[in-house]
Amino acid sequence: MKRSLVALSFALFTLCTQAQVHTPPTSTKAESHQVVGLTDIKIDYSRPNMRGRLVFGDLVPYGRMWRTGANMNTVVTFGNDVEIGGKKLKKGSYALFTIPKVEEWEVIFYADTNNWGLPEKWDESKVALSTKVKPIGSDRKFETLTVAVNNVNIDYADLEIMWEKTVVPVRFKVPTDQLAMQSIDETFEGPTIVDYYGAAEYYYLTNKDLVKALDWVNKAIEKSGEKIPYYFVRLKSQIQAKGGDKIAAVETAKWALELAEKANNLDYIKINKDAIREWSK
């Protein structure tokens, strides 16, 4: 009898740990990603359905703060600083809360995104930005709550909250021109030290023009300032040796050895010592 009870208990335990009921959630999880100009915008939220209910003014009362979604916070992430209603919103992730009214909505970007619905205790210091927006009536009925980036332009777009027959467009501006000009300026200033080093190494490894390779590695070394990487100098010695200038290669290898010793890189210490011996013959 005792064995039977043990066996039954084990069987029930196994069944309980293995069996799982899978049912669809009433509010489905959604993620979206949109690039506006040069700025990434991501939205992560849960989408409730109307299911025959009157939404605004009933399910979502007017004049009260709304979680603007279901379950965990609706989170909007901006990859760069943006401007909303003439105010700056720093790049980062924000919970999206709203206070719907018939004529005007208040849209709030809240710095704490780890809430199930509204925060238990509202902290005004965490309000990164709030703005007033006029809702727009729509001929189309949105059965499922939709939060999306629409009307995408090169330097602005609308974060739209759409449900029932209401659209709330939150216009935000992105710093496209600033980012583009910065990129242009950096590009026209010339390649970076990594670009020079990479090009020199590729030419050395593929037996291309060693004069160009030497010029590029010299530029990489010159632009490195006080902290010259020992592997930059090592590459220069290799290019010199492959080009037939063993005397210069030995002197450069001694410099690379000194830098490797300061960095305590045992591999490069050995490599340079071996090279000095070989090229000195």
UniProtKB/TrEMBL annotation:
It holds the Pfam family DUF2911. Residues 1-19 form the signal peptide. Keywords: Signal. InterPro entries: DUF2911. This is Dihydrolipoamide dehydrogenase. It comes from Myroides profundi.
